[in-house]
Fold these 2 entries.
Entry 1:
Amino acid sequence: MAASEIMVNLNQKALELIREDADKILKLIEVQMENLIPRQCPLYEEVLDTQMYGLSREIDFAVRAGLMTRQAGKEILSRLEREVARLYEALNRQGK
């Protein structure tokens, strides 16, 4: 296998793993949306914040290692941040 093929495989694997982790966070958000667990619930908020931070560190590492582009990482994080914003909007509407 040529070095370029190995690099392409590594890039694809890194992106696949990061997307899997992003999907896990998305599932967490979806469960919270379905149940509309109060935002003040420290367990969910802390888990969500920790997961988002961990994913951002994974993406940063992959970008620095040349395994994915910064733009691809930003797109993944932006999608999750939009979902988090939707969740908080729903929770705020529920609290009123």
Entry 2:
Amino acid sequence: MLLEKDVLVAAYQGRWGCPPKWVVRAPGRVNLIGEHTDYSDGFVLPLAINRAIWIALEPREDQQVVVHSVDFGETATIELATLARAQPSWQEYLKGVAWSLQEAGFRLKGWSGLLQGDVPLGAGLSSSAALEMATARAFAAASDLPWDPAGMARLGQRAENQWVGVNCGIMDQLISAVGRAEHAMLIDCRSLEAQPVPFPPGTAVVVLDTGTRRGLVDSAYNERRATVEAAARRFGVKALRDVSLARLNDEAASLDETTRRRARHVVSENQRTLDAAEAMRRGDAVTLGLLMNQSHASLRDDYEVSSDALDAMVQCALEQTGCYGARMTGAGFGGCAVALIDAQAAGEFGPAVAAGYQATTGHVPSVYVCRATEGAAAFAIPSPSGRGLG
């Protein structure tokens, strides 16, 4: 069941005996195309989805943040004046955002909160970025900070890079901050310009959760990033975004085989993403689907971040009537795929894919149609007397 604001307000009141002053929400995301390009200053085409991290909160007078996570059944107490790293857990994302905000010069106030989400953990739908942006939204509400979506996304990325230790790009935090209802967002990861792009008429986006998970910090993600950054230095450019396919092909012999394939994915994926946005503007679902298929092949063969489960899920999706295209989404090595389908086939598509995938792999999947939603938001909750707070 998808979470709603009123559910969290009621849970907060049940725990503390009074309603919260604020409820904040930050969505997860699914990326249609443009994978492993964001940390090369490239182009991505994600949408913010109708699954999110929610925090109900009340400002405090001290420098403590006291948060209870419904999902983990744990309560964290964070001292803003003496932030210190600990073992990896959901609490480190909150501490990392607090650290990043304070490093940027923001004066933070404490708050008491109740945290709950319906973004599947480790599925490639960016639950971590949703938590970072929800936390930033909570601090902005409690501390009366200005909300600059792109700036806050940068600070969330810094928290994940430098506090949590994952060298992610900017895509996940930015789409969680700037998402647009009923649109994907073509994001230039260098300028942070984000252009809303409409979906082809009569189509639907389906998330295909393989039921397999990967630990991002311990995966080969950081190794992939180091390889493409080294390739950019070899070409004498800031990032592979600045290398054309023609130049890559001309100078490919100077790269070792692995670096050549990694670079080829990034350079070709950037072009596929721009082509996909143009296809969407034309309402061309067929071309968009073909580009998604090509993206999956590149991620599987050149970037080598797919998995047997992801490949099986994509194949099961492509075998169904009404499927235009499918690909893995997210960092890879497990998690989710995404499919573009004829909306009229949505009722039959999910059960058919789930049955085929389970028969092939033995894994129990989750399949659900996604709706594109707005980015991170804060809602002031009226006091019991009916007077609006905040």
